[in-house]
Amino acid sequence: MDAAAQASAHLAETSTADTGGASDSTPSGVFSASQAGRGRAVFVDLCSECHYTSEMRDAPFQFTWKRRTAWDLHRLVVRDMPEDAPGSLSNQQYIDVTAYILQLNGYPPGDLELVRDEAILRAIPMKKPAGTRP
Ligand code: HEC
Fold first, then answer.
1. Considering Cα of 53, then 80, then 65, then 19, what sign does the dihedral take?
2. What is the CA(40)–ligand 1 centre distance, in A?
3. 94 Cβ below 6 A of ligand 1
4. Does 116 fall in a domain?
5. Which of 18, 20, 106, 124 is a Cys-bridge partner for 132, taking CB atoms 3.0 to 4.6 Å apart?
């Protein structure tokens, strides 16, 4: 399956999860639990020198990010992080750590892996999904 086909399959899958009367159209299941686990390991190894995980989910973080998307977050992290070595992670590590930050912000894992696709990432608001606690 090429990237575009994978992207539309991914979007179809994530949006059908919401058609059963969910309170809003927030996509769910956009990454897998194992991917978020890998992202957590990346965070511990390569980000925690400068960041606490709480910093990536707390009220100031949400205030900054709630009107932006996972694409904005991913792009910032890829371009600027780690601050002392920007761009030094693999693409896989960057997308995995993005999945982990989504999990920190209340997104539940699902069956699919998050992939580095601008359309998919733009469809995921950083605002905490309805019904999740800060
Ligand atoms: C050497 C220290 C350092 C490391 C390592 C580092 N960061 Fe950062 N990070 C910073 C600093 C400093 C800022 C604030 C930059 C600014 O505001 O211009 C920042 C900002 C951020 C922000 C924006 C936070 C916000 O509230 O808007 C994110 C997201 C982020 N970092 C993610 C990461 C991730 C993910 C990693 C690991 C891949 C990482 N950083 C590794 C120093 C670091």
1. negative
2. 15
3. no
4. yes
5. 106
